[in-house]
Amino acid sequence: MKTKINEIFASIQGEGPVVGYKQLFIRFCGCNLKCAYCDTEFNTGMEFTPQELYKKISSEYDLKTFHSISLTGGEPLLSVEFLKEFLPLVQNEVKIYLETNATLFDKIGEIKDNIDIISADIKLKSSTGFDSFALHRKFFENCKDIETFAKVVFDEFITEDEIAKCVELAQDFNLELILQPKMAGDKMTVSSEFCTEILERFTQKHKNTRLIPQVHKFLNVI
Ligand code: SF4
Fold first, then answer.
1. Which of 6, 22, 171, 205 lies most in the core, judged by the most C-beta atoms within 10 Å?
2. What is the pTM of this model?
3. Residue nearest to atom 8 of ligand 1 (CA)
4. What are the structural domain ranges in the chain?
5. Which residues line ligand 1 (CB under 6 A)?
6. Cα–ligand 1 centroid distance for 35 (angstroms)
7. Which ligand 1 atom is the nearest neighbour of the CA of 73?
8. CA 70 to ligand 1 centroid distance, Å
9. In the CATH scheme, what is the code of domain 3-219?
């Protein structure tokens, strides 16, 4: 079985609670969503079998020097059949960190024993044009035993109703919320004052919330 990989690169994680750690990023092709703010090119790539990918990364990188392998995309869970074979090859050498849009709730159950940390997006309709809260709820139900946090990309259109729904999910599933202002290039699309105000509105309802901009854009690394 093969899957298409867009790129493989070593870099610094720029988002969420593991910000600053060195990770080996494996970007999978394809996504099931079309977020308005998406700035990732993930359609072209090379095909690998699980064994070919393992051979490539273990010969080109010193895996023990990485905090974790970041499975990113696109949406890595679209390649779940591939992951079921690939992850057991590598998971004894390095932690596995999954970046996902948290909508493919049936897929996460198939590899939950192979994942150490999940970075799960909560997508806002004001940013994506798509109401995905019901899918997120089913997704979080299926990752109860895995270390999971939820990332919320927001802009000036975030609504009180969306804040309430994010908080409801976070409290029901005991999640830390990471607020991430939408970027245009290396600039935030909202002011620092607005960020502070949004953090305040979240923490009034859910104290376990942090605001972390995309640090890799300030560092000017991929
Ligand atoms: S889920 Fe992520 S990769 Fe997919 S379209 Fe949205 S931002 Fe892009």
1. 6
2. 0.95
3. 38
4. 3-219
5. 31, 33-35, 38, 40, 73-75, 101
6. 5
7. 3
8. 15
9. 3.20.20.70
